[in-house]
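Hey team,

Filing this mostly as a record. A colleague (T.K.) asked me to run one chain through the structure pipeline before their review meeting, and I want the input and output archived in the tracker in case anyone asks later how it was produced. No errors, nothing strange. Just documentation.

Input sequence:
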Amino acid sequence: MIYINPPYAEAPQRKFEKEGKLAVEQSKTNKKYATLLGQGNRELFAQFLTRIYFEIPNCTTAQFSKLKILNSQHFVDFRKFYCANFKKGFVCPASSFDNVKGKFPIGFMIWDSFQKTNFKENEFDIYNKLGKFINTKTYYSYDNSQYINDWVKPFRANVKKNQLIGKFPFMGNDFQQQNIIQINHHKMVYNKAAGQFLINQKNVMQACIYFAVVKSIKASWLNDRDQFLFPNDGWKTDTNFQNE
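Output structure:
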């Protein structure tokens, strides 16, 4: 049985990004398992779990970490091979730990690698910063889902062909990106890391739907990793929904 509090160190996705520690992911474990980890190799704690899974088989691992391994798009490859059975877990605010900033959940998870199964969804107990039980929450892998950014991207206006009336930036599909979504002048310069949705008269309805949906639920430390998904086709004919 292995108990670990793995390091919270992540390499930046792009060299010019300020967040993350440049080249921190370079290790013997990364070289050995990078093709399996995919984008997840940037997180050191994922490297820890991968090495334990393959080199100490059929063990029980109990670990604290962010919840990226459960539902992040960057960990789709990780979830394909990490087939340890989820036994039990709880989440608490990241600020419960010394010197940890940010409003996001930290999870304690127990995995049994002797029992092989893919993570799809599981219920976690929720505790506040004082250790008081609040409720339970189910976390999903979303691996068979499409995301809201996949829905809106095809509607983007062409900067050369259309008269633009505005734009908004977008990056990931989760609540932690909610605060960057704002409609601005189409000539405003954004952070290089952010994509952009250009708005004109033809796609203003889709832009408004995206903006309203992403802003409709307040972000919190608990839903920080929850994902916005692809809508069903009902929005196309639901004029009440569109107008509201």
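Quick notes for T.K.: The CA atoms of residues 110 and 137 lie 16 Å apart. The chain has two domains: 2-140, 148-243.
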